[in-house]
Each structure stands twice: as C-alpha cells, then as structure tokens.
C-alpha cells in the first residue's frame, strides 16, 4: 500500500513543500529512504522504528520504501521523522481514510516524543502558501508556527497522541500565536548610565534616527561598548512585518524561544569570527551574524582586529541588504538588513592621547587595516575622549534616558516614513543616490556648495543623507546649512585624527 504525507524542508529562510511517500509491500523486511536525504535523514529510520515501537505500533515486517519528493531538493536534518512515521503507519493500513490532508513536521526521540525543529515559522508560512489547512507540529514550536495567520496549528507532544488525533480518538485545540513575548526593548541597558560623551550620544541618536551605520573611535574605557549596547533601546520597535522576519530568521537559526520576537536583535560577534561566520555559509548553509542581526544591529567591536577577508565579505551584504550563499548548484538567499555599528581605538597602543607611544608607522599600519572595505559603508564617524570622572554618589546627575531619546528618534522616523512611503525604503540611510538628490531639498544651495565641493560624489550623497536625518531630528522640512555642517563633521578623513 502507498501513503503520502506533506511536510516541509528548509532552504535558506524559506520552507519548501516535500511529500513523504511510503510504499509497504510484501518481501524481505527492509526499510530504505530515497530522495536525496543527508545522513541525519537516513538516520531517521532508526528513530522512526524505535519511536513507533515505543508508541505501541508494530513496525511492518515487510519491504518499506520511503521517498522524499521532489528528489532534486537536498533534504537535511531530522525534521522529516514525524512525517515518515505517520506515512509508514498509513501505508500499513493503520490510519483511516486516504492520503493525509494535514501537514506534519517534527523530530522524533526514540521514546516517541516529538522534539522541536528549526524553522517552524518558515515552514508554517510555506504551508499556508501551499493551501494546507492544518499543520501538526512539536508542542514547543506551536506558538511560533501559529503566527502564520489563517493556518490551523496543533502542537503535539508525542507520536502516540498524534496517531490518536489522526484516528479521531482525541481532539485538540488549535495553538494560539504567541504575540509579544519580549515586549518593546524597555528593560535593556539605559543611556542614563552614560556619563558625558555628548558628541557620541548625539551621533548614536542620529544613527538611530536615520538607520545610518556608525563608527566610534576612542581610547579604551571611553564607553564605546557601553554606548553600542544602548542602541537597540533607542530604535523604533519593529513593525509586525519586521517582527515576523526577525522571528523567521531566529527560528531557522534555532534561536527562537517560542513566539513572536518583538525586539530588534543585537549581535556582537568576536573579532576572530570567520568570513562565513559573519555572512553565512557552510554545508548545510547556515545564516551568518549579519543575517542574525537582520532588522537590528550588528556590532563589530575592535573593528581593526577583524580579518580583512571577513570585512570584505560583509561589504556586499551591507550594500544589498541580503546575502547569497552558494552551495553546490544552488544559491540560498538570506536577508541581511542590519545597522552596522563599529568601534575601535584611536591607535594600536590604545592609550589616551597624552600617553600614546605609537610612532607614525604604527599608526599608518593601523589606519590601513581600518580603511578600505567597510569605511565607505559608514555614514557617521565620531570620536570619543576619556569620560568625565564619576561624581561622588548622590551628586550624580544622570544622563538623558533612552526613553526620551527614543521619542525624538521615533518622531524623526515618522517624517521619513511619510516622505519615503512610495519609494520602497524605510529610512534615510536606505536612500540611493538618485533618491537622495531628489528628496534632500537644500536651502541656501549656493552657500552649501563649498562644504560639498571637496567631497567625492559618493561622499556628497552620504553627507546629504545624513544632513536629511539631522534636519528630521530638528523637525525641519528643508535641510539648512547648519544641518549640512554638522553632517560634514561626521565624515572620516583620517581615522586616526584622534591619536594624531
Ligand atoms: N561614559 C561613561 N559613563 C559611565 N561609565 C563609563 C563610561 N565610559 C566607561 N565607563 C565604564 O567603564 C567600563 C568600560 O567601558 P567600555 O564601554 O567597555 O569602554 P570601551 O568600549 O570604550 O573600551 C564600562 O563598563 C563602564 O562601567
Ligand atoms: Mg569596548
Ligand atoms: Zn598609541
């Protein structure tokens, strides 16, 4: 007898439909899996056999052949276990009715428990696209899968319960989507903790307001890392569509915690990370840090310590907002729309200006490591000095809180949303050259010319985008000379001005 069960494979961030066909016929007992399975899938035979036995089902003493279709798609991981087990039972006559209408995804333990899988939301979205009405998933993944609107999702704890459900001996309530497990990022670290550093705070606010990439340069202990960690707290909360994207990415990476992720990610990979760790790759392909930071922040602390090859690899994703990972004949695309935040010391000895022992050669060598691939993706560069000393407790006047800064950021973002509504971009940093020239209205264009003239075409666009954001923060429809002047000041001429 032949039975078919629908399930899904992951390709990049998307679920693709897979049909598990099982044929049970007379012959010497055998159990084989065909259809481009990887080792984890082939091993599912052992899990399925044991799980069925431990769920009170006799494994057919016949020739059992499993085909995963389409055969051209490479199948990886253990998420096909459950569909295979159900199809085996159905092909052996253990379920009423013909082919199963429900889609089934899950990994099995030997005892028959259904274990969570990666990519549950991506698969559920694919199921909805494919017209599936009901999907049976591991209990732990149910709130995530249920985010796919209009799909009925049932979380099932064990294979035995799943079979009872399919036989009609048990009913189950559809899972509710878990909305807002995180809530807005209000309880992260607060800017009120940062002493002084007015310039850097201003730069961080502008970066947040326009979505600009930012590099902070300053001596150790100035508070660069501290400021960086406070960026997510002043960004606007993700829209529903962005939250779904973030949840999908985290689900595929195995980081999802069971519901809608409503907090923007903050990723701070160590500088020893490889290029493929940063942008994605490997067999099977995995998303890199820039994808895990999608719709959030990618923080590269100690920027010059990163391997040049890693930074080169990051360039294209930052430009395009997506990464293409090539694996064999196939290309997998991951989203990579992250804000880049980077920090570095002013010189290799990393001491304050007065105590610096670096000579020019040291400094030039250090600067070379910095310049190049990434710098032209960075709109804003700011320099920090030593922070003011702590004032005795009690007299401490706290800095402005993240909540207040976030209000200004949100107001500036609203102006951008309004202005860019029909342009397909969400913030000033995402405007291309054409759009920048069209939307940035310079008042006093003649006076502005000297400030712009010294810059390259690309440099001008960068300054104009930044000036647009500064004007938005000032609630000014036109970009004034003062906005332009401030924007020009955030350019990087020599990354080591601070140390020189
Ligand atoms: N501006 C500041 N305000 C308050 N504390 C600071 C400031 N700068 C540094 N610190 C303190 O020093 C520690 C190290 O700062 P950090 O942000 O790691 O510096 P950096 O990354 O520039 O080397 C912080 O954990 C914090 O306690
Ligand atoms: Mg630091
Ligand atoms: Zn030095």
Can you describe this structure?
- The termini are far apart.
- The chain has helices at 39-42, 44-53, 81-91, 120-129, 142-145, 159-167, 198-210, 224-228, 240-252, 275-279, 289-292, 308-320, 360-370, 402-420, 433-439, 445-453, 457-473, 481-489; strands spanning 2-11, 14-25, 30-34, 63-69, 103-104, 107-108, 114-115, 134-138, 152-156, 214-217, 266-267, 280-281, 286-287, 297-300, 322-327, 330-335, 339-344, 380-383.
- It has two domains: 2-167, Ribosomal Protein S5, domain 2 (2-Layer Sandwich); 184-418, Rossmann fold, CATH 3.40.50.
- Strand 6 and strand 7 (114-115) form a beta hairpin.
- The chain has a five-stranded parallel sheet.
- It is 35% helix and 17% strand.
- The chain is an alpha/beta fold and 500 residues long.
Which structural class is indicated by helix and strand composition?
A: alpha/beta
Mean pLDDT: 87
Which strand order do you get reading across the main beta sheet?
11-14-17-10-18
Radius of gyration: 27 Å
Cofactors, ions, other ligands: adenosine-5'-diphosphate, magnesium ion, zinc ion
Write the CATH homologous superfamily of the largest domain.
Answer: P-loop containing nucleotide triphosphate hydrolases
**Biggest sheet architecture:** 5 strands, parallel
Give me the CATH architecture of the largest domain, please: 3-Layer(aba) Sandwich
* Tally of DSSP helical segments: 18
The 3D shape can be described as elongated
């Amino acid at each position: 007898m032949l039975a078919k069960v629908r399930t899904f494979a992951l390709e990049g961030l998307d679920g693709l439909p897979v049909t598990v066909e099982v044929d049970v016929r007379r012959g010497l007992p055998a159990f084989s899996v065909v259809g481009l399975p990887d080792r984890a899938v082939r091993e599912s035979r052992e899990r399925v056999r044991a799980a069925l036995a431990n769920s009170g089902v006799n494994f057919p003493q016949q020739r059992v052949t499993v085909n995963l279709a389409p055969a051209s798609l490479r199948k990886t991981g253990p998420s096909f276990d459950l569909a295979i087990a159900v199809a085996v039972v159905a092909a052996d006559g253990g379920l009423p009715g013909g082919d199963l209408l429900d889609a089934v995804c899950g990994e099995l333990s030997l005892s028959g428990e259904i274990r969570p899988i990666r990519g549950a939301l991506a698969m559920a979205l694919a199921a909805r696209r494919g017209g599936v009405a009901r999907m049976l998933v591991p209990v732990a993944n149910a709130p995530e899968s249920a985010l796919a609107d209009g799909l009925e999702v049932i979380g099932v704890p064990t294979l035995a319960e799943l079979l009872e459900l399919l036989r009609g001996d048990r009913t189950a309530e559809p899972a509710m989507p878990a909305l807002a497990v995180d809530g807005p990022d209000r309880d992260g670290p607060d800017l009120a903790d940062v002493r002084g550093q007015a310039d850097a705070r201003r730069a961080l606010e502008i970066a947040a307001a326009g979505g600009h990439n930012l590099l902070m340069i300053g001596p150790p202990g100035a508070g660069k890392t501290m400021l960086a960690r406070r960026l997510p707290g002043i960004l606007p909360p993700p829209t529903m569509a962005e939250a779904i994207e973030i949840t999908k990415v985290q689900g595929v990476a195995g980081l999802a915690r069971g519901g809608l992720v409503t907090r923007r990610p903050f990723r701070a990979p160590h500088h020893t990370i490889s290029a493929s760790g940063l942008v994605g790759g490997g067999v099977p392909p995995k998303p890199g840090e820039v994808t895990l930071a999608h719709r959030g922040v990618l923080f590269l602390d100690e920027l010059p310590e990163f391997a040049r090859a890693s930074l080169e690899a990051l360039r294209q994703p930052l430009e395009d907002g997506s990464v293409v990972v090539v694996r064999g004949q196939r290309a997998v695309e991951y989203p990579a729309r992250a804000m880049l935040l980077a920090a570095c010391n002013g010189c290799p000895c990393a001491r304050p200006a007065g105590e610096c022992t670096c000579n020019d050669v040291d400094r030039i060598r250090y600067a070379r490591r910095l310049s190049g691939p990434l710098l032209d993706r960075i709109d804003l560069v700011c320099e920090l000095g030593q922070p003011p000393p702590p004032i005795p407790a009690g007299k401490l006047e706290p800095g402005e809180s993240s909540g207040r800064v976030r209000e200004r950021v949100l107001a500036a973002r609203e102006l951008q949303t309004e202005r860019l509504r029909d342009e397909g971009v969400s913030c000033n940093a995402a405007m291309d050259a054409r759009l920048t020239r069209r939307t940035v209205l310079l008042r006093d264009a003649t006076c502005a010319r000297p400030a712009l003239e010294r810059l390259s075409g690309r440099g001008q666009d960068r300054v104009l985008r930044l000036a647009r954001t500064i004007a938005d923060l000032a609630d000014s429809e036109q970009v004034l000379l003062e906005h332009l002047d401030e924007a020009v000041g955030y350019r990087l001429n020599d990354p080591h001005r601070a140390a020189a």
